[in-house]
Design a protein that fits this description.
Number of strands: 0
Structural class: mainly alpha
Number of domains: 2
Distance between the termini: 45 Å
Helix content: over 70%
Shape: globular
Number of helices: 17
Strand content: under 5%
């Protein structure tokens, strides 16, 4: 075969691959858009009813007759959702689901952009289709009407502006993310190590300004949240299947309470120390791999990392994938990446029929991704 013929064949094959990847991507959208036709979004109903309760003079943190669960988010979130009560509940829940899908797509677009890639490339389309089709936390977040894609969107925007050295904008979006769900707080010590003073100042100003106005709107509600609700969230551990944090894993595995508490603190400290020592070895140079590491770490050591919040691993997964690909690393790294993706993306509809050791699969996957991230950072030095 002559060189011109070979070139034409490769071009045709490339064109075929592009069309195939686009087709797979379009088909994968079924798993995303079908959530628009669900009949009930339990967590969104709490977000919808909470502003109504506040404006009626009631306390949403104490729940109510129509609440799926009592409100647990800060007062900022309650006021953030207040525009939705201008619509009927049936309209509002669909509107929120549509917005969540938009937050997901825009987040993915910027994650690829941060890594110097394009979402609508062949690899980008196939990676996205992989997430849409096989990553259960995405479906879980949309099906529950959760807030995770908004948090992902704000965090990704913060990292994007940090990559552009626009520290004030980066600090603003990171603060909004942390004020919704205190995530990811571990980026604050990282910013101190990087001496990002302008960004830290932006965070401080944004936090104080918003907190001041929220307090003025409802001092009693604010004091109740920080005095009663937040301490209960920080102090309790749950062993439910859907809690896939270190604390959830140990709650299921270790019966003796004092030993469990000791092991949780010990292993959490070890994970934090190893992570920040690794970052320090990298001479505290800003790296998207370091951000990925801290996102994984945050999910591992949090007392409550419900399965749906692992959508935040989309940033580490995509960042690590392209790092491995660009470094032309061996197939082994992709196998580890794939094992982590499979474990974190899996869902067991009936976890009770499995031995306890098997139902912490999301925790194992996140820990494996964290370990791979550590190794890649050390290998890069």
């Amino acid at each position: 075969m002559s060189l011109p013929q070979l070139t034409k064949k490769l071009i045709r094959n490339r064109s075929l691959i592009n069309k195939l990847s686009f087709t797979i991507f379009i088909l994968s959208l079924f798993f995303i858009f079908k959530t628009l036709f669900l009949n009930f979004y339990p967590d969104f109903k709490v977000h919808y009813l909470s502003p109504i309760a506040v404006f009626s003079g009631n306390n949403p943190y104490k729940g109510g007759e129509n609440f799926f669960t009592p409100e647990v988010y800060p007062p900022f979130v309650i006021y953030l959702f207040s525009p939705f009560i201008l619509f009927s509940y049936s309209v509002a829940e669909k509107l929120w689901t549509a917005l969540s899908i938009i937050f997901l797509f825009v987040s993915l677009y910027f994650i690829f952009k941060i890594n110097g890639k394009f979402l609508f490339s062949t690899t980008g389309l196939l990676l996205s289709a992989l997430f849409f089709t096989f990553y259960f936390p995405i479906k879980f977040t949309l099906g529950m009407g959760q807030i995770n894609f908004l948090i992902l969107f704000l965090t990704v925007l913060s990292v994007y502006f940090l990559n552009k050295n626009k520290e004030a904008s980066s600090g603003f979006f990171l603060t909004l993310s942390m004020m919704i769900k205190f995530f990811p707080l571990l980026l604050l010590p990282y910013l101190l190590l990087l001496k990002k003073w302008k960004m830290l100042l932006s965070i401080g100003i944004t936090f104080c300004t918003i907190s001041f106005f929220i307090f003025l709107l409802n001092p009693k509600l604010t004091l109740y949240f920080y005095g009663s609700v937040l301490p209960s969230l920080l102090g309790g551990w749950k062993g439910d299947y859907y809690n896939q944090s270190l604390a959830g894993f140990l709650t299921r595995e270790v019966v003796f309470l004092p030993l469990r508490e000791f092991m949780t603190v010990l292993f959490s400290l070890l994970l934090v120390i190893i992570s920040f020592v690794t970052i320090h070895i990298r001479k505290n140079i800003f790296s998207n791999l370091s951000v990925s590491l801290l996102i994984s770490l945050s999910l591992l050591i949090n007392n409550f990392s419900w399965q749906h919040v692992f959508v935040w691993l989309s940033f580490p997964f995509i960042t690590i994938f392209y790092f491995i690909k660009d470094q032309r690393s061996s197939l082994f790294y992709f196998l580890v990446w794939g094992a982590s993706f499979f474990l974190t993306g899996l869902n067991l509809p009936n976890p009770g029929i499995f031995p306890v050791i098997f139902i912490s699969h999301v925790f194992y996957g996140a820990l494996l991704l964290w370990a791979l991230n550590i190794y890649l950072l050390l290998k890069k030095t």
